[in-house]
């Protein structure tokens, strides 16, 4: 049985999910979190479905061992191909939230009858998870998606030359699939880290949407419904695991949370 003081478990292929973790801590400042970034196998977007599912299930075991009261899949690729499996595997023990469904809810409310584009990993775009959910719900959106596989490796590497990323972004956003759109969905939790550059490309003419805030609200609503919100003023504990230490991950975690970060290496398989 979980307690309100138990932590929220969050996982991603690497450091992109830190954008979601940051949003959760801003929305719920008293909540403790346990974050797992699978940097040893990042990026997940070019991995097979079976591999992503295996990583996700293993990480869920680790988060359950840490007594997490909710598990948040802070990765679009894993949300696309492993969410149902994870729910089947641990759903009887703990609530599982993904990053796709809150975004689809948001689009249904705000972008009906609009033209919406999405950029994401090969796995997310290839799964057509967003398109399928939009169609299943009968949402009248003209939707196009484009795989942008170079972006996650550039972000994970901590690429410091802004011109490099700007040129890659430009080459993708000029693609025919993304022309004349009202909004662009950042279909990867790494992409908020380059949201400023994407906004600069559009010069305010196209809305750029990431799921971080709406996912954080979904987490809050779920914990509220289960009466598992941490007490206001509770001193939160934040633990960060990575399957392989990277300087970029450590630096970003420290910058995001503006406090000393305890980063521990935890290999998925020894």
Describe the structure.
The chain is of the alpha/beta class and 270 residues long. Helix content is 43%, strand content 17%. It has helices at 18-27, 49-65, 76-81, 83-90, 100-110, 122-127, 129-136, 151-156, 162-173, 195-202, 212-225, 247-257; strands at residues 8-12, 33-37, 70-73, 95-97, 115-120, 142-147, 183-187, 207-209, 238-242, 262-265. The strands form two sheets. The protein has a six-stranded parallel beta sheet, sandwiched between helices. A four-stranded parallel beta sheet has the order 6-5-7-8. Helix 2 packs parallel to helix 4 (83-90).
Q: Beta-sheet strand percentage? A: 15-25%
Structural class: alpha/beta
> In terms of per-residue confidence, which ranges show pLDDT below 50 for 5 or more consecutive residues?
none
**Going across the major beta sheet, what is the strand order?**
4-3-1-2-9-10
Task: Summarize model confidence as the mean pLDDT.
Answer: 94
* Fraction in helix: 40-55%
SS summary, helix count: 12
**Multimer state:** single chain
Topology pattern, helix = H, strand = E: EHEHEHHEHEHHEHHEHEHEHE
Number of DSSP strands? 10
The backbone outline, from C-alpha atoms, is globular
Distance between the termini: 30 Å
The main β sheet shows up as:
6 strands, parallel
Radius of gyration: 18 Å
